[in-house]
Design goal:
- By secondary structure, this protein is of the alpha/beta class.
- The chain has eleven helices and 13 strands.
- The strands form two sheets. It has an eight-stranded mixed beta sheet with strand order 7-8-9-3-10-11-13-12, with helices on both faces. Strands 1, 2, 4, 5 and 6 form a five-stranded antiparallel beta sheet that branches.
- The structure holds adenosine-5'-triphosphate (ATP) and magnesium ion.
Length: 320
């Protein structure tokens, strides 16, 4: 069953200097229970794609369009306020790099998790609080009842990250978007939290979209990888194929720059040349200025993203 179905998504931000084209025709499908890693260098449109899927971007200034944008059967672009609220609790949840963005500094952690639960379910405050406490215990917080009474600024980064995951899971979403959920933490805690997210994914039977710069994390956590560049998807393939037999020249450049697969140590390396300017993207394939095998066709016309087999797809004229 397809849970997230994105076809030809574009997101732009009109500005004085011109229009920033953050996402330029992304198509992405995620099945129930599937875990997908999204990789690509800074500014490639990973976060904006996730935010747009949940309609978390302010419109205006952002402008979102798609041939299809469905999440759990809900037409995201036509959803009303009530449907969007259900979408963001029961269907999907998101955890961010900075947990302070998920919590309101003026309310206790407990209050915020209880309110989140009660916004989506008809359940008493006491029951919601018991559930919140159990969830905090599940994310390996040792003294859950004390933490429920704490305020966000009283917790360490790692604790707050765990509390944010607990809050995200409190409505039992079918899909979790995790946008660089551990980059701000030290390496040992990163590994623990990623391990936890993976465990919870299996336990809750959720789909997972994991945005990360860490290819070691990708190798250990996901079934399939989506490689983004310049606001487009360059390639998607099962995780083993991305490492063993990358097809797109950009994916090949990424893999060539990667010596091993230890989580926390395999930050995506910048490859030679400048990233495309999203306010003035190159003609044709966005990667052509940095591509070793680009020809006139690549400069003139953007390649369509197309299937190469049952499990693989890419946008590259040289793979035609
Ligand atoms: N609110 C905004 N207004 C204008 N431009 C924006 C806005 N949000 C994002 N952008 C631009 O959209 C492009 C894609 O941004 P996005 O945050 O999705 O990149 P990313 O792949 O998540 O990068 P990173 O790995 O650094 O998190 C970037 O050029 C960014 O500057
Ligand atoms: Mg981002």
């Amino acid at each position: 069953m397809t849970l997230l179905d994105i076809e030809n998504l574009t997101v732009s931000f009109p500005q004085h200097q011109g229009v920033v084209q953050a996402v330029r025709g992304v198509s992405l499908r995620v099945a129930a229970g599937e875990s997908v890693g999204v990789v690509g260098e800074s500014g490639s449109g990973k976060s904006v794609t996730c935010m747009a899927a949940l309609r978390l971007l302010r419109e205006p200034p952002s402008r979102i369009a798609a041939d299809r944008l469905e999440l759990g059967g809900i037409d995201v672009l036509r959803a009303g306020r009530g449907q969007l609220s259900a979408l963001r609790g029961r269907v999907a949840a998101m955890v961010f790099q900075d947990p302070m963005t998920a919590f309101d500094p003026v309310f206790s952690i407990g209050h915020q998790i209880v309110e989140t639960i009660r916004a989506h379910r008809d359940i008493s405050k006491a029951d919601a609080r018991a559930e919140a406490s159990a969830l905090l215990a599940r994310v390996e917080i040792k003294n859950p009842d004390a933490i429920l009474n704490s305020y966000p600024h009283q917790l360490s980064g790692g604790m707050l990250q765990r509390a944010m995951i607990a809050m995200a899971l409190s409505c039992r979403p079918q899909i979790l978007f995790a946008d660089e959920p551990t980059t701000a933490l030290d390496v040992t805690i990163q590994a623990q939290i990623l391990h936890l997210i993976k465990e919870l994914q299996a336990e809750f039977g959720m789909a997972l979209i994991m945005v990360t710069h860490d290819l070691g994390v990708v190798a250990e956590t996901v079934d399939r990888v989506v490689v983004m560049y310049g606001g487009r998807v360059m390639e998607t393939a099962p995780v083993q194929d991305i490492f063993d037999a990358p097809l797109h020249p950009y994916t090949q450049a990424l893999m060539a720059s990667m010596p091993g697969r230890t989580p926390g140590k395999q930050r995506l390396v910048e490859i030679a040349g400048a990233s495309p300017n999203p306010a003035n993207p190159p003609t044709g394939c966005p990667f052509h200025p940095r591509c070793a095998v680009a020809d006139a066709h690549c400069t003139a016309e953007a390649p369509a993203f197309r299937a190469l087999s049952d499990t693989r797809a890419a946008a590259c004229w040289r793979l035609a």
